[in-house]
Amino acid sequence: MLKVLKSGFFTTIQDLGRFGYRDNGVPVSGAMDKFAVKKGNQLLENQANAAVLEITMTGPTLQFEAPTYICLSGADISPLLNQEPVQNYQVVKVSKGDTLSFGRLNCGFRCYLAIKGGFKTPEVLGSRSLYVPVTKNKCLQKEEEIAYEETTSFIPAISEIKIPDHFDGSEIEVQRGPEFSMLSDSQLAAIFSKPFTVSEKNNRMAYQLSELIPGHTHSMLTSGTLPGTVQLTPAGRMIILMKDGQTTGGYPRILQLSEEAICKLAQKKFGDEIMLKLL
Amino acid sequence: MKSYPIHIEPFGKSAVLVAWPNQVEESILQDILEFANNFRALKLEGWELVIAYNSITMIQNDGILDFGEIKELILECHSKPKAENQKKERYLWRIPVCYEREFGIDIDEVAETLNLSPEQLIDQHTSQQYIVYGIGFLPGFMYLGGLPSSLEIPRRAEPRLNVSKGSVGLAGKQTGIYPQDSPGGWNIIGNCPIPLFDSSRETPCFVSVGDKVQFYEISKAEYDLRIIEAEVGIYKLEKLTIDA
Fold first, then answer.
1. Options 3.40.50.2300, 2.40.50.200, 2.40.100.10, 3.40.140.80; which CATH number does B90-242 get?
2. Which of A146, A147, B60, B115 is 20–30 Å from B5 (CA)?
3. Secondary structure class of B151 (helix, strand, coil)
4. Burial class, B188, CB count within 10 angstroms (exposed 0-12 / middle 13-18 / buried 19+)
5. CA B127 → CA B121, B175, B236, distances in Å?
6. For the segment A25-37, what is each residue's pLDDT rounded down to a tens digit?
7. Is the complex ipTM higher than 0.85?
8. What is the C-alpha to C-alpha distance for residues A263 and A227, in angstroms, rounded to an integer?
9. Residue B23's closest chain A neighbor by CA?
10. Cβ-based contacts of A229 with chain B (< 8 Å)
């Protein structure tokens, strides 16, 4: 078991998502930065869908009650194993009783803790990703114990990789969304000529951008939305749906982020600048 | 049966949006459902279909799409006669609602605005069969069409920070049930004791797009009993098969 001594700001359990229930109104959920999760699980030679912890901004304090191997990826939140610094993208052996804690957020916003074999929490509707009301809790609770399998020996084929942070830079690539053609020249100019700031309203459901663009009166029938869909409100606010985003919406879908762009945006926080670039 | 023109376009790298004429029409929904049945009959892997009003969003979960290829497949499914053996059954669900003041916190105000007595309001609300045009916004939230124009009332000027689970509301041309506690601006006229979304069931939302819903009034005593049934998971719903 992994014991949660402190839960951190917002720590959740995620795999790659809950597929097949969008027609019931259930978002796909899953890790916000799939790229980082993929690397962590690959180094541990896990299944791609092995469940990890998604650690947001401020890390939890966790105690391992059985030996295993872990790998951290994504944001750098100054991880410490028994008070000694450890690196991201490196397989680390942990022993019974070891404590993992975090310090200052150096870069990015979401860090992932992958564990040998993945976390073994119950699957609900085919996924371990936390999402209320599908699961009871939306994030880890203090004193909670999370199941994993003990591993006493493991020789990784590759124990460490150096990767440039995939979330450096402010450029976010977008494609045209279904209602792209409703945009006026002045709206287009406003979207693509200057950077936007991530507002304080940013979470797993959606990222709102602080700056407004010229508004609209376009009315449409509710229709499907995807993670990465950029909605434009009549007031001119851009709302980018993320992994826990609703499955349908009534605002024009002007742009669409690719999976890579979602990963990059998932590592941005309140006040960070982004620049939208049309593919 | 009428077949409408469709518009197909890519929606990101792994999804396609197919749009029918921009209208709320049962015959359009019917056309979309038949198209969806034809597509499902192909038994292709990894697809999720999200139908809402006049569109269907088709998402491929296993990778990137070849738009040209899928467009051809879509046109073929749309022009094909309906796959009778693949037809998904459609149901009329009878859903209990308690309109007592304890739940229907806005019912007196709404009735007054609409120039109806609360009894007339309940009578009109329960006499309709509403079509489910979509499920989304929240897990288990149904977009219902067919509200009598006599029950159309604007949203509340100030949304409430919390509307309780099961609340039945009116807003504009819509009526619906909040499947979970949520902020919201609808006028609340009652509460439904049956969970609209239950993740312990294989099909967590019992209703599908294309089904119909009719409300019926229950007393507070029956409501309390239904709540207990729901808590222990033994609730049952009345449904009738619709001949589509």
1. 2.40.100.10
2. B60
3. helix
4. buried
5. 10, 13, 21
6. 999 999 999 999 9
7. yes
8. 11
9. A221
10. 12
